[in-house]
Design goal:
InterPro entries: Bulb-type_lectin_dom (IPR001480), Bulb-type_lectin_dom_sf (IPR036426). This protein is mostly beta strands and about 400 residues long. It is built from two helices and 30 strands. The protein folds into two domains: about 5-285, Agglutinin, subunit A (Orthogonal Prism), CATH 2.90.10; about 310-395. The protein has helices spanning about 260-265, 340-350, and strands at about 5, 25, 30, 40, 45-60, 60-70, 80-85, 95-100, 105, 115-120, 130-135, 140-145, 155-160, 165, 175, 180, 185, 195-200, 205-210, 215-220, 235-245, 245-255, 270, 280, 285, 315-320, 355-360, 360-370, 380-385, 390-395.
């Protein structure tokens, strides 16, 4: 077991939410079409339904409804810390969180229930009359029950076992008793569906690893040296590795206790963002945009690539104007789960591709002549070598 400490500046004020219920008992419901929410005992965390606007069309929808968890008040970074149904949004306001004698689920009209926990999935005989789902100050929603055979209280299900894109104090990343825990980014900044990036714990080398699909993009290093320089030093993050025959995982805790509740909830999380960056609290981000498959700096991993890609090649954002406007094809293809990083990866693997852009979840590849340095044009990520110096043509496609 090892312990590693990281420190970061904290600024903030104390803003508490008015007390509300923190427990869902058998027969209780939490409805989407009401303002009723669960709030943790100290007002730190809220659980409820919300409507998410996508800002574009995704799966033929411009919005969806989600059961989510968020910090209650006072933080400008109001990104949710957990989603129950990120890949299965509710189409209307019919969603209801229900605890009954079958388990914990979200019901809705016009679709099957979203089952969070079913009593049929456990071999333990549970007294259903005293089951309860409790929202803890840590941001963990815990479903508890009593084993009828020995009277012991047991945890039947907890949201910490199903993380989305946020790593919270006390949450595990790794493997524990046959269950694996990892983070997955949002598809875009406004679409919560599973995106291109995953972060997991590598127990063989005691490091955090960020994947782009099936390729390693970045690692923390065995001593977390690739987290960079965090200063001034004002608050401690203590990362602890647990390794035994049944468990291999990492978790972290906040060390300094004198900071206010608001300071803790503003900075007590690590978010894997939709572009692959790691957001540590509100004030610090680890920029993984430099990890383009051809860099080994600051934890970036270099990939095997085509011979046309040389050391030093990288993407640069440029404003360009195709000289043959009729060659532009803005028809988008059917895959709605591609990010800019995916498009850059596709481009990188094909020597004909000189640059790439994303528009409405589709890739636009730069293949021919263009003008750059223009006042008005299209923004493209252009590979800074092996490209014509003056002209180019762009088109949209799914495969080169």
């Amino acid at each position: 077991m090892f312990s590693f400490r990281v420190v970061v500046l904290i600024l903030g004020c104390l803003c508490l939410t008015e007390a509300s219920r923190d427990t869902l008992n058998p027969g209780d419901k939490l409805s989407l079409n009401s303002s009723d929410n669960l709030v943790s005992p100290n007002g730190n965390v809220t659980l409820g339904f919300f409507r998410q606007e996508y800002g574009q069309t995704w799966n033929d929808k411009s919005f969806g409804y989600y059961l989510a968890m968020w910090y209650a008040q006072g933080t400008s970074y109001n990104h949710s810390i957990w989603l129950a149904n990120r890949d299965d949004p509710i189409a209307d306001e019919s969603g209801v969180l229900v605890l009954d004698d079958t388990g914990l689920k979200i019901t809705r009209s016009g679709g099957n229930p979203i089952q969070l926990f079913s009593l049929q999935s456990t071999s333990i005989t549970i007294n259903t009359s005293n089951m309860k789902a409790v929202l803890q100050d840590s941001g963990n929603l815990v479903l508890q029950g009593t084993n009828e055979e020995n009277g012991e209280n047991v945890v039947l299900w907890q949201s910490f076992d199903y993380p989305t894109d946020s790593f919270l104090p006390g949450m595990k990343l790794g493997v524990s008793n046959g269950r694996s825990f990892s983070l997955t980014s949002w598809l875009t900044g406004s679409i919560p569906a599973s995106g291109s990036f995953t972060m997991e714990w590598d127990p063989a080398r005691n490091r955090l690893v960020v994947w782009l699909r099936e390729r390693i993009l970045w690692t923390s290093g065995e001593n977390f040296e690739n987290f960079g320089s965090l200063d001034p030093l004002n608050m401690n993050y203590d990362f602890t590795n647990v390794s035994n025959p049944n468990e291999k995982y990492v978790y972290y805790t906040l060390i300094i206790s004198q900071y206010t509740l608001e300071e803790r909830r503003k900075n007590g999380r690590l978010v894997l963002q939709d572009d692959g960056n790691l957001q540590l609290g509100e004030i610090y981000a680890i920029n993984l945009q430099l990890c383009d498959g051809n860099s080994t700096e600051n934890g970036c991993e270099r990939w095997e690539g085509p011979k046309c890609r040389k050391k030093g090649d990288k993407y640069e954002l440029r404003t360009i104007r195709p000289t043959h406007k009729d060659s532009l094809n803005d028809t988008l293809y059917g895959n709605t789960n591609l990010s800019l990083k995916d498009c850059k990866d596709i481009c990188w693997e094909d020597c004909k591709c000189l640059g790439v852009a994303v528009q409405d979840l589709g890739c636009r590849f730069l293949l021919g002549y263009y003008e750059e340095g223009v006042s008005f044009g299209d923004s493209f990520e252009v590979i800074n070598r092996n490209r014509p110096s003056k002209f180019n043509i762009a088109r949209s496609c799914s495969n080169l």
